[in-house]
Design goal:
Radius of gyration: 22 Å
CATH class of the largest domain: Alpha Beta
Helix content: 25-40%
Bound molecules: ligand C6P
Number of helices: 13
Number of strands: 12
Number of domains: 2
Distance between the termini: 33 Å
CATH superfamily of the largest domain: Type I PLP-dependent aspartate aminotransferase-like (Major domain)
Strand content: 5-15%
CATH topology of the largest domain: Aspartate Aminotransferase, domain 2
Largest sheet: 7 strands, mixed
Structural class: alpha/beta
CATH architecture of the largest domain: 3-Layer(aba) Sandwich
Length: 393
């Protein structure tokens, strides 16, 4: 049995989504901007997908949703265009983000710092989230943008987006949220929160890779990142990727319908896994599970190097990760664990287990067994754990 517990890195495309996409590669390949029959066919499919996305997010208007190639593009677009529109050509000079944002936000901020922008990286509390009052205390009259993720990709911890949005509204500061790990996992209702920009990515909710989007409240002005033709009203040029957009529309609809029942099932499996692993000595889970996305668990096992654990799990046909997939080759300590104050040794032991609606109870039980065996084997050869072991033997 092959078991995939790395769904925060990417997900399997739902077979129903694949089926819906296939005709748009072969039979219906027209450019949706063309006026002939080939174009009108795909244009209709595009309109349906826009509808599926804006309804799933409860956006006020379909024109507020723009398709991009991925969330990395959406995040770059917001940060760089706010810099262009409000910092280079305005009187503001400051952006506020959390220190645990995804690299697509943090690396863009480093680039903007090189251009002279002042960036504040907000600290997180021991739960790994930024508190709303912290955001408030760092906003100045020169702050152009606050960008805080809705849910963290490594811990699953959910940030107080509603409160932060209210603070930004009161202060007259633009608010962006990277909702990549929230959309499709927890309710995201754009009329219940004050958010100016929101990024999402289809491959996190059983849609295809290489397609995402940016919600722009009231279609407000934001300079394009890609200049060109009149696609998406000239806001994001480039011929529209119809098969992928069709796939994302359906994937979002499937992920958000019956969400409470689906997430209750995923949560029950995640909690079963977490409870079983917490029986082991010297094991810690980051963040209170009530305020976490239902599918995520970041566990730290004293004395067990994360990479060693991944090796053993991989040999047991289980796919997991030590954290963000885009940082997994550098063998660095888990950055979120360091941010919440874990020592460097512990921060090298983090393992992220992320479930999906396709995860089964049998798979969870097999992971529990494999995990226990791996912990026993790896601790037996761990010199650092040997020092603490007498208290547990
Ligand atoms: N996180 C992870 O293993 P793309 O791939 O560009 O559509 O999404 C980037 C991205 C942006 N924000 C958050 C919060 C994310 O989690 C991701 C992708 C993966 O955690 C791959 S690094």
């Amino acid at each position: 049995m092959e078991i995939y517990l790395d769904n925060n890195a990417t997900t399997m495309v739902d077979p129903k989504v694949v089926e819906a996409m296939v005709p748009f590669f072969g039979q219906m390949y027209g450019n949706p901007n063309s006026l002939h029959k080939f174009g009108t066919q795909t244009h209709a499919a595009l309109t349906k997908a826009v509808d599926q996305v804006y309804k799933a997010l409860n956006a006020a208007d379909a024109d507020d949703v723009i398709f991009t190639s991925c969330a990395t593009e959406s995040n770059n677009w917001v940060l760089k265009s706010v810099w262009l529109d409000h910092i280079m050509h305005g009187h503001k000079n400051h952006i506020v983000v959390s220190e645990v944002e995804h690299p697509s936000v943090l690396t863009t901020c480093r680039f903007l710092e090189e251009q002279g922008v002042k960036v504040t990286y907000l600290p997180v509390n021991d739960q790994g989230i930024v508190e709303a009052h912290t955001v408030k205390s760092f906003i100045t009259d020169r702050t152009a943008l606050v960008s805080i993720m809705w849910a963290n990709n490594e811990t699953g911890m959910i940030f107080p987006i509603k409160e932060i949005g209210e603070i930004c509204r009161e202060k007259g500061v633009l608010f962006h949220t990277d909702a990549v790990q929230a959309v499709g996992k927890i309710p995201v209702d754009l009329q219940a929160v004050h958010v100016d920009f929101l990024s999402f990515s289809a491959h996190k909710f059983h849609g295809p890779k290489g397609i995402g989007g940016l919600y722009i409240r009231n279609s407000q002005a934001l300079s394009p990142l890609l200049h060109g033709g009149e696609h998406m009203g000239g806001r994001r040029s480039g011929t529209l990727n119809v098969p992928y957009i069709v796939g994302m529309g359906l994937a979002m609809e499937l992920a958000t319908q019956n969400m409470s029942a689906t997430s209750a099932k995923i949560r029950a499996l995640r909690d079963r896994l977490e409870d079983a692993l917490l029986q082991l000595p010297d094991v810690f889970v980051v963040g209170n599970r009530a305020n976490r996305t239902p599918n995520t668990l970041l566990i730290s096992i004293r004395g067990v190097e994360g990479e060693g654990m991944l090796w053993d799990l991989n040999n047991a046909h289980i796919g997991a990760s030590t954290g963000s997939a885009c940082a997994s080759e550098d063998l660095e300590a888990n950055t979120v664990m360091l941010a919440i104050g874990a020592d460097s040794e512990l921060a090298h032991t983090g393992i992220r287990l992320s479930l999906s609606r396709f995860t089964t109870e049998a798979e969870v039980d097999a992971v529990i067994d494999a995990f226990k065996k791996a912990v026993g084997r790896l601790r037996a050869i761990s010199s650092s754990y040997a020092k603490v072991q007498p208290t547990h033997s």
